[in-house]
Amino acid sequence: MHSLETRSLERRFGGLAAVNGLSFSLDRGEILGVIGPNGAGKTTLINLVAGLYRPTSGAILFEGRDITGVPAHARARMGIGRTFQLVHPLESLDVLENVMLGFVFCRGLGLRAARKEAEALCETLRLGGLARELSQITMLETKKLEIARALAGGPSVLFLDEVMAGLNSDETRELIELVKDIARSRNIGVGVVEHVMGVIKELTHRVLVLEAGELIAEGPYEEVVKDRRVIEAYLGGAA
Amino acid sequence: MRRLARFLGPLLLAAAAILLPFAVGAYPLAVARTVLVYMALALSWDILVRSGQISFGIAGFFGLGAYASVLADLHASLSPVLSILAAGAAAALVAAFLGLAILRLRATYFSITTLALAEIFRVVIHNGGDFTGGAEGVVLPKPIFGGDSRQLYWLALGAVLLACLCSLVFQKTRLRLALTAIRNDETAAKSNGIHIFKYLMVAFAASSFIQGIVGGIQVQSLGFATPESVFDPNYTLLPLAMALLGGIYSTPGPVLGAMLLGVAAEFLKLKIPYGHLVVYGIIIVLVILFMPRGLFGLARPDRPSAAKARSLLRKGGGEGSSRA
């Protein structure tokens, strides 16, 4: 049984199939890369898994259970976490309160216990000790905050939507180590949507390549980058 | 020590409010009672505003409570005090039922719908025939407590204390995190496991419950109700202006705003009849433009400016995605 599995997942927006007949799986402890040109359906895929979109057809299974009709907040409680490409910190809450949300609403902790747990989590992510106002934190810290908020919900599956975007190479390195550590030490299945190929190469065990909503290649990084269809998708037919 | 100081202010204010009837005459006391009625409504409105939902239906649930109280008193011979509780329950039930539909709406759509609801309630009761008294309204045999001005004042003060208590519960528990998250970003809130509809429902029902109670208290204190008097749009406009002036998303804000505007209105009424309404309008415009967190927000700059934080974060995220 896979931790997460989709079967012939399809999502149409009008006439456009943003995701078309996609079947894949993700296991605990595994880091899965999701790549593809702009508009390939990567973020749509995350939104389908997180429950923000309903699929037009197909099914999503979480730990063997069909969750296709389960609303987003309930999926978060079950253990499906995600971050957003455009970061979504809640600006009227301070950093710690942002992290507390998952502990309170996914794991049912009281405010006091949630605050303690959130402090501990920020500490492990080296987010601790920083100024607590949202307007004062750096880009790297914002990205870490996104990850911390997702981890607070206690996910067994976590999708990261371009968390490395906008970071310099040192920061990217730090975050790569962090994501590896999360997958290993917390035994979480991590889905990584990313444009930077170096990140995908270093981070992932397996890669899905999407183009126009369809899965065109799947396998280890070294194999998929040699795939003719993948090269065509990225460089155009002439290549 | 600081803890003590924080509790001391509100406690002194509450003590002063309780003892006020022994210090002032009948007219100031009547003014104070009216201010308390609006204060409780302002507090109730603020509770829902914390979720980002702006209701223009205060007068609707206030009037509904007023009629529920009168009708329970007249037709079911409920004691006045019990009928006030029934008023709260009726308003909360109607809110919960209508909430199933209207809490799916957001922003101006929600606001306009709540405004329309208040008008629908008025029309229904206006045309309710003998049961509701129709356009002529209903008169109670006598006001609650025989119309004793001190007891009426304390009754209204009770409503304010109830509203404060409710407001504090929404401030000190997970309800604050849930409603703030919903106000800031519903997508993020969902992804953190927050059942948005459930929390909106709790806030809407609690807010309407208080409005119903206050309606019941008002009608039992005055001894009569007509559709035009209890569904008066002023019961929506004044609490809204008070909460905005004092500072929304807080408990002291609406209290402060109600005291200032309530007293100012009384003064203005004497100087320029109906002029106070113009002043309310001007205050709403000025506060929204220049002081979105109200007076209390000025005194407590403990949160970063929302717009500043947003622009900073969006800029960062945007740069990242365009470079990629």
Descriptive labels:
heterodimer; A: 239 residues; alpha/beta; Rossmann fold; 2 domains; six-stranded mixed beta sheet; four-stranded antiparallel beta sheet; 9 helices; 38% helix; B: 324 residues; mainly alpha; two-stranded antiparallel ribbon; 79% helix; 1% strand; globular; disordered C terminus
What is this structure's SSE topology?
The complex is a heterodimer of chains A (239) and B (324).
Chain A: E1 4-13, E2 16-26, E3 31-35, H1 42-50, E4 57-62, E5 65-66, H2 72-78, E6 80-82, H3 95-105, H4 111-124, H5 139-152, E7 157-161, H6 169-185, E8 189-193, H7 197-203, E9 206-211, E10 214-219, H8 221-224, H9 228-235
Parallel strand pairs in A: 3-8, 3-9, 6-7, 7-8
Antiparallel strand pairs in A: 1-2, 1-4, 4-5, 9-10
Helix pairs in contact in A: 3-4, 3-5, 4-5
Chain B: H1 2-23, H2 26-49, H3 58-75, H4 80-102, H5 107-126, H6 129-132, E1 138-139, H7 149-172, H8 174-184, H9 186-191, H10 196-222, E2 224-225, H11 227-230, H12 234-246, H13 252-271, H14 275-290, H15 294-298, H16 306-323
Antiparallel strand pairs in B: 1-2
Helix pairs in contact in B: 2-7, 2-10, 2-12, 2-13, 3-4, 3-5, 3-10, 3-12, 4-10, 7-10, 8-10, 12-13, 12-14, 13-14
